[in-house]
Amino acid sequence: MKLPAFFDQVPRLRLVDPLADFLGAAEDGVLEYGYADAVRLAGHSCPTVASAYWLSHRALAELYPDSLPVRGQIRVSFRDSQDQGVTGVVAAVIGLLTGAAHDGGFKGLAGQFARNGLQRFAAEQPLSLRFTRSDTGASVDAMADLSHVPGDPAMGQLLSWCLSGQADADERRRFATLWQARVASILLNHADDPEVFVIRPVSR
Prior knowledge:
This protein is of the alpha+beta class. Helices cover 36% and strands 15% of the residues. α4 links the parallel β3 and β4. The protein starts with 12 loop residues before the first strand and ends with a strand.
């Protein structure tokens, strides 16, 4: 399987998962995820998947400045309903990284390690996402504004041709190349751009 080279340039996310430690799935429970893992989960690489991955990365770094984030001990709430827009895709990627699941998630062992009920939708909050540590209650709000990273002007026409079956092989390849170039720009050129990725600590 050959993936775009820039995937490996995106910083990876290391966490500790008490359930993985308990069941011997990873030494000391330490797990590591990369952008390619989010792509494998979603089945594609796009600005939505990229922003979900990087918002999670940034939010967890803010919540755990001096230690590894604890997977399964992070609640995530969404301003939109689960079936609105791309919320479901975002929730799936965030669930992969944080362990947070909706009602159908893992229910735990003897009251421990539960992952269900850690995602909540249609929440009243100022930004798209809120990440909260279960142990301390510390929270950050987060959102991505991808309008600041426009795609190549040729993408619109190429997309139309591809979807209608009018594009030839070269045009399809050009569209895919331009599409991934925008994703790469989001993750590499704008990773620390406060106009693109907004992370705000929540006052308590």
